[in-house]
Amino acid sequence: LYDYFFVLEPSPEITAEVKKLKQLMNQMIGISSENLHSKAHLTLFEYQESESEEDAMIRKVTRALGNTGCFLVELDGVETFIHGKQSRSVVLKVKEHAPIESMKGLLRRELQLKPEKITPHVTIARNIPVDQFELIRSMEVFDFSSQFLCTKVTVLKRPANSKEKYTIFHEALL
């Protein structure tokens, strides 16, 4: 059994800028290695499947995305996600959710997965303990806006429920 992680990857320029924001956050409050070193991405969804089903999965992904063209993704400033009283995440907002939600819906239906609501975003740091989060002097330094053309869906893979690094399994061009 493997975890398959469906993501959109920003342009190399945006990826480099997000890396700088992660480094700045680390200098400011100290963040986990996972937060510091995770590559910029927009999560679509994750699910588990057996390796024997990979060919069928690729066919389904290709079919689901058959009529989906490239589209512009606009990052529109910084936002904080609140996770109860325990933690916070600092993310870059996505201005227009509709194209991402539509594509995600097509993929999930084709893969026979139930609908799932994840607000599209690019994470700077996630699950920061509240006492650590409160050390951030100003959120303005993380306020970043840009845009990129989404040309593919990247499917990452790793052994199920492991902490191993994901590897690129498949790239579905739009």
Distance between the termini: 27 Å
Radius of gyration: 17 Å
Strand numbers in spatial order across the main sheet: 2-1-7-8
Largest sheet: 4 strands, antiparallel
| Residue share in β-strands | 35-45%
Overall pLDDT score:
96
Low-confidence stretches: none
Q: Level of helix content? A: 25-40%
State the shape: globular
Instruction: Give the ordered list of helices and strands.
Output: EHHEHEEHEHEEE
- Report the count of strand segments: 8
Write the layout of secondary structure elements.
Layout: E1 2-8, H1 12-29, H2 33-37, E2 42-49, H3 54-64, E3 71-83, E4 87-94, H4 98-110, E5 121-129, H5 130-133, E6 145-150, E7 152-159, E8 167-173
Antiparallel strand pairs: 1-2, 1-7, 3-4, 3-6, 4-5, 7-8
Helix pairs in contact: 3-4
Task: Write a structural description.
The protein is an alpha+beta fold and 174 residues long. 29% of the residues lie in helices and 38% in strands. It has a four-stranded antiparallel sheet with strand order 2-1-7-8, covered by helices on one side. A hairpin with a 7-residue loop joins strand 7 and strand 8.
Characteristics of this structure?
174 residues, alpha+beta, 4-stranded antiparallel β-sheet, 5 helices
